[in-house]
Design goal:
With about 150 residues, the protein is α+β, with helices and mostly antiparallel strands. It contains 3 helices and 7 strands, in the order αβαββββββα. Helix content is about 35%, strand content about 30%.
Amino acid sequence: MKRRHKRIIFIVCCLGALGFAAWLVFRALGDNLAFSMSPTEIMAKKVSANRVLRVGGLVEKGTLKRDNDGLTLRFAVTDTANTIPVVYKETASHPVPDLFKEGRGCVVQGRVGSDGVFYADQIMAKHDENYMPPEAGKAIDQAKAAKTLVDK
């Protein structure tokens, strides 16, 4: 075999290995990505049940309830236009944050069930009075603007 053929085979093998490594990286990233959405976006789109999502908004007042088992928390997240019910089962590795209260901003990560309920694996609450996740703030502002246009 000529030197030129060996070099071509080497280059093709390196490109194949590089392509396979890139495929592995993108596949791992795709499994771990969580897209942020508002309750309005979830209601407007049919989201697949296996897709991991983050939903941002405000914890609707009067909806925060704890089940008799002491671990299951039920509440609703709203962007003032639409509301999505959320069920969260507290674990030792993911406890409910101390700042998580009604009327405050939060982001929940999990999956939408076939029944339309969002089953959260994790709750993230705002850390001070000035912070709100950018996606949640934007969704709330858009919902308020749409509501004022409808009211006029």
